[in-house]
Structures are given as structure tokens and as C-alpha cells.
Amino acid sequence: MNAAAHEVVAAFARAGLALHARLREMLDEHPSHRTERRGCGYTQATRFLSTHINQPRAPDSASDFVVLATWPKARTEALAQQAIAAGWAQGWRRLDRCDDAIVSTLDDEGATRLLVALPRTLAAIHASLQHEESRLLADLLRQILAPDPGGASMLPEMREKPEIGSCSQAEEFFLEIAHGRVRRGGRVNLFVDAEGRPALVEKMALGESHSAMAIASVTVGGVRLPPGALFALRYPDATEPLRSTACGQVFPLSAIAQARFLRLTTLAVSPAARARAFSAQFEAQQRNNLLSPGTTTIENLRAFAQAQLGPA
After folding, report:
1. Tally of domains in the chain
2. pTM for the complete prediction?
3. Phi and psi at residue 93, in whole multiples of 5°?
4. Among candidates 219, 207, 61, which has minimal Cα distance to 145?
5. Which of 111, 145, 179 finishes a domain?
6. Contact 137, 19 (CB under 8 A)
7. Which domain holds residue 248?
8. Whether the Cβ atoms of residue 183 and residue 205 lie closer than 8 Å to each other
9. How many CB atoms lie within 10 A of CB 104?
């Protein structure tokens, strides 16, 4: 293993769960994954995971295990079908929570043992990590591979890739919005939860429209995504807003017909961690004189949204 391997790459390898080769290359900052437009390796890694996050978690499919270099996928799917037939609707997922009587009926003892231990293994990996960006990524991997069967999607998935891109320019607009600057001709919409708390900030006519950033945790495809996650949204043009603000409109989260997680932005981690986590991408933000990329936080963007809504 590369002595300079990313903390997540090294931790998964030590646990016997080596990551997919491309994911390892991304996290280890291979030059092919560091471009001006596409960002750095960490950014690319979250794009890689987005493909799996935006798909429903099927109990009889082991396709999510593609994020690992090796895994007995065929054996896992065979066990899933047995578990479903025996009454465990989650299939192979979270067999650690399954009735022991059902687990004892599964044929492949070796694969069953791996699956039962998987949540504990992933939790131990997460606990071993020191850097916040590593814990963030490991949490996404954990939820892909061992999701909580009770977790319902807050936002409906957008399974196909949209025309809305995920290039590194998106931060430029959201950094400006976080400081109350909305360029001429642009609009900023807010999406609020059932209690009226702002959850998503959507930019319109600022670069690509219907591009949004989470300012609270939201769930897509059974995976909880943190503040600082970038999304593409779809909802009917005729959707009636709850009300208007000085620079846009306010909609309920329930109005969203489809949401696609695109990647994590530099705002997903604290300013102190950005240079380490986003390397070349963060350097480009500073070099290109974006508005305060080293000090702006999600709290700034949340404060902007709350000011548009009025007193909490």
C-alpha cells in the first residue's frame, strides 16, 4: 500500500475492505483526477459515490459493493434472496439486526458472517479516522453499504444524470450568496422543511439554474447528506411558492419532484480542513479570487437564508 495513501484508503485497507481502484486513485490525488474544472481527487471521489447514492437501495442487489475492490457479490445476492424468502425484507442489508433464527437458515456461512459483521467493521473504520473530511466520506460509504433499514428518503431520487453540472465553479456563486451578494439578474430560492426551517438554497440564473446547496442534512436514496452537499433539483414550473423574498421564493421541500446529489463542496468541511481536503481545488479558489473561500462557512449561508425568511 502507498505510504502516502489517503486516510480513508488506508483505514479501509487495514480492515480488509480495499476500496475500488478508481476511488483509491481519486483519494490519493492521482494527477488525472486533479483538474481546474472538475476539482480535486476528494471532489471526484464524492462524484464517484453519487452514482450509488442516487439509486434506491435494493435489498436483493449487491451493486453497491462496487465501491470495494473485492466482495462476494453473487454470494451476497443469493443470501439476500434466501433472507427475503425467510421473512427479512431487507435482504442482505443489516443482517446484524435480523432474527438469529433467520440468519441460521442462510446457506453461505462465510458470506453471512461478513455481512453480519459489516456494520461493526464500518463503524470501527469511522472511529479510527482523525480528519473531518475522512469521517464525512467514510460516513457516506457506511450508509451506502450498511444503511439503517428504517431510514426513509426525505427527497425523491433523480436516477438519471441531469444537464445541470457539478463543476468547481458552483462554489463561486454560493460563496457570494453566503455574503448576501446576488448578481444582477440572478435569484435565490429557499426550500424549507415541515417546521419552516431552511434546508436548501437554490440558485437561479447564476451559472446553471436549479443547482442547490444543502444548509441542513437531507436524505436521498436512504443516505443522509451533510450541509455543503450540492444538488440538482426538479420541480414543476407551476409550483406555488409559500411566499416571496427580496431575491427569490420560498418552497416546501415536499415540492421537489426529484433531487440528485452531485458532490460535496468545499463548504462541507470547516475552513481549517479545506486546504488538506480539497488541495488543488481550494488553491484554485484562492488563486481566482473567489469571495472568502478560506473563511466562509455553511453558517454564513444559513444566516443568509434565515434573514430572507425573517425571525425564526
Report:
1. 2
2. 0.94
3. -75, 130
4. 61
5. 145
6. no
7. 170-309
8. no
9. 10
User: pLDDT in tens for each of the 312 residues of the chain?
Assistant: 555 899 999 999 999 999 999 999 999 988 777 766 667 889 999 999 999 999 888 899 999 999 999 999 999 999 999 999 999 999 999 999 999 999 999 999 999 999 999 999 999 999 999 999 999 999 999 999 988 755 555 899 998 888 887 777 789 999 999 999 999 999 999 999 999 999 999 999 999 999 999 999 999 988 999 999 999 999 999 999 999 999 999 999 999 999 999 999 999 999 999 999 999 899 999 999 999 999 999 999 999 999 999 876
Same domain, 244 and 191: yes
Residue 164 lies in a domain: no
217 and 91 assigned to the same domain: no
User: Is 155 within a domain?
Assistant: no
- Which residues, listed in sequence order, are joined to residue 250 by a DSSP beta bridge? 190, 243
Residue 72 lies in a domain: yes
Contact 23, 46 (CB under 8 A): no
Report CA dihedral (52, 192, 194, 236) to the nearest 10 degrees: -70
3-state helix, strand, coil in the chain (%, to 5): 45, 15, 40
Q: How far is CA 19 from CA 79, 87, 128, 143, 235, in A?
A: 23, 32, 16, 15, 36
- The residue among 304, 305, 218, 229 whose CA lies nearest residue 269 is 229
